[in-house]
Design goal:
By secondary structure, the protein is α+β, with helices and mostly antiparallel strands. It has two domains: 5-203 and 376-465, Aminopeptidase, CATH 3.40.630.10; 205-262 and 291-374, 2-Layer Sandwich (Alpha-Beta Plaits), CATH 3.30.70. Helix content is 35%, strand content 21%. It is built from 14 helices and 18 strands. The chain has a six-stranded mixed β-sheet, with helices on one face. A four-stranded antiparallel β-sheet has the order 11-13-9-14, with helices on one face. A three-stranded antiparallel β-sheet has the order 4-5-18. A hairpin with a 2-residue loop joins strand 4 and strand 5. Helix 1 (5-26) crosses helix 14 (445-465) and helix 12 (384-397) packs antiparallel against helix 14 (445-465). The relative contact order is 0.19. The structure holds ligand BES and manganese (II) ion. Residues 127-128, 161-162, 164, 188-190, 206, 372, 374, 406-411, 430, 436 line the site of ligand BES.
Length: 467
């Protein structure tokens, strides 16, 4: 058995320092979607790299391909001895973050990590700088005390996850040899609750689509011209309204064709998970008099994990600040379709494109452009690495982990799993109260500490399980 005690003790004694380091990462606004923050994403990569060097990781360097954002690589590959070889893990997280949204809705400054009660507030505190720091705190705790790790590790911390990983496959192709590994461990997903660990075995895919409807060269006075002049805002509203039916199901013909229905055993298992509807509503921030969307007897988790969904992320036609009596020249929208396993992105893109062209009101100019497209992913849990993860999480949290789906998407998983033919363990530090992508994002510090303890155990368990 690998002795993890020294590393665990070191982590417990120093967890305050690790949280301070996390706060230094949060202080850098590494917003990948905003070109005004390009330098900050670079700065974030450099600061992650410097910290990795300081804890004893080797070959630390920035990996970047043309047009892409900086990923940080670093490794420690001395676990094998003359008599035994050790497996190599690829540890993944991302150091880029989402924009803040309305700044004045934050109760604390988004890029200043602030501890309140059990939680650390700040953009990226959980998604995914908290996840990144879970890997690094575990590694540091071994290297500081035992001067070695029980397994070989390679770290890859991406800088463009939140914009759909546009150059990640290029990076994989270019650095294939360097990134080769036996098992991948990601920390960019959610636990079932802050104190109930989760192993995510399914991700939804995503088709993000930009729709523009235009009719005029410029906005015109709605009194002087209203009547004969077509209104792109109304046309957009009508088109978007046709996309779903009264139950929130997509109204695009044939789009559900490939969705795998759950077996009655799977549904029974889902129903066994502890679930509190009021808490669910509270965590999502659903207003008191507002009803949830229902599809047949599917539970909220079934809908989020196992069914596709469509949402409108942006509608832009003038703005409140510029409101005036005009007919606008054009309207713009972004919609996102979450795909579940077995749905094929190319097919759904074609169905969506045809639907939009067929349903837009006559007489307008329609322009449809796909933004990011990520396939769904799912894994079997047969590989012994999953037993190792079960044991490690049980030790860290004192509770059996739950096998979960995830409604979100992570560009890394499908292409890397395919190319490296390595199992992917998705264990993370977000929880239902995290508010990722929203205002007042936060990390549950107790959950995060249990996550690091589990990660320390996982490195040991994976060393053992490959013997
Ligand atoms: N950490 C999230 C993935 C996630 C979502 C985990 C929900 C748990 C619950 C990840 O950083 C993310 O937000 N991914 C984006 C990818 C997109 C930009 C291609 C997403 O799902 O929207
Ligand atoms: Mn994330």
């Amino acid at each position: 058995m690998i002795n993890t005690k020294k590393a665990q003790d070191y982590f417990k004694k120093n967890s305050k320092n690790f949280i301070e380091q996390l706060a230094r990462f949060v202080a850098i606004p590494s917003i990948s979607s905003d070109s005004a923050h390009t330098k900050d994403v670079d700065r974030s990569a450099n600061s992650v790299a410097a910290y990795m060097r300081s804890i004893g990781l080797e070959h630390v360097e920035i990996l970047q391909v043309r047009g892409g954002k900086p990923a940080v690589y670093g490794d420690w590959l001395h676990a094998s001895t003359k008599t035994s070889t050790s497996p190599t893990l690829l540890l993944y997280a991302h150091h880029d973050v989402q924009p803040t949204g309305e700044h004045n809705k934050w109760k604390t400054e988004p890029f200043k990590a602030v501890k309140k009660g059990d939680r650390l507030y700040g953009r990226g505190a959980a998604d995914d700088k908290g996840g990144l720091m879970m890997h690094l705190a575990a590694i540091a705790s071994y290297l500081k005390t035992k001067k070695k790790l029980p397994v070989n590790v390679k770290c890859l911390f991406e800088g463009e996850e939140e914009i759909g990983s546009p150059t990640l496959v290029k990076l994989l192709t270019k650095y294939r040899k360097k990134l080769e590994a036996d098992v991948m461990v990601l920390s960019d997903t959610e636990n079932y609750a802050a104190d109930i660990p989760g192993i995510t075995i399914q991700l939804r895919g995503l088709i993000s689509c930009h729709i523009s409807i235009s009719a005029l060269e410029k906005p015109v006075h709605s009194g002087g011209w209203g009547g004969p002049i077509p209104d792109p805002a109304l046309a957009m509203a009508k088109l978007l309204a046709k996309l779903t039916d009264g139950n929130g199901r997509m109204a695009i013909p044939n789009v559900y064709e490939d969705v795998e229905l759950l077996s009655s055993e799977q549904r029974a298992l889902l129903k066994k998970l502890p679930f509190d509807l009021n808490k669910f509503r509270k965590h999502a921030g659903v207003l008191e008099d507002v009803e949830l969307v229902r599809q047949g007897d599917a539970t909220p988790h079934e809908m989020i994990w196992h069914l596709p969904s469509l949402s409108v992320n942006v509608i832009q036609v003038s703005s409140r600040a510029q409101a005036s009596n005009v007919i606008m020249d054009s309207a713009w929208a972004q919609i996102g379709i979450r795909l579940v396993p077995n749905m094929m992105p190319e097919k759904v893109i074609k169905l969506l494109d045809d639907f939009l062209k067929k349903n837009v009101e006559k007489g307008f100019r329609l322009d449809v452009k796909m933004d990011h497209v990520l396939p769904p992913w799912k894994t079997s849990i047969e590989h012994p690495a999953f037993r190792a993860a079960e044991r490690a999480l049980k030790k860290g949290y004192g509770k059996e982990p739950v096998y979960m789906g995830c409604g979100g998407s992570i560009g890394f998983v499908e292409p890397f799993a395919k190319a490296l033919k390595a199992p992917a363990l998705l264990i993370g530090v977000e929880d239902p109260e995290t508010a990722a992508h929203s205002w007042n994002e936060s990390l549950h510090l107790g959950g995060w500490q249990k996550g690091v303890v589990s990660m320390i155990e996982l490195l040991g368990e994976l060393a053992e399980s490959s013997k």
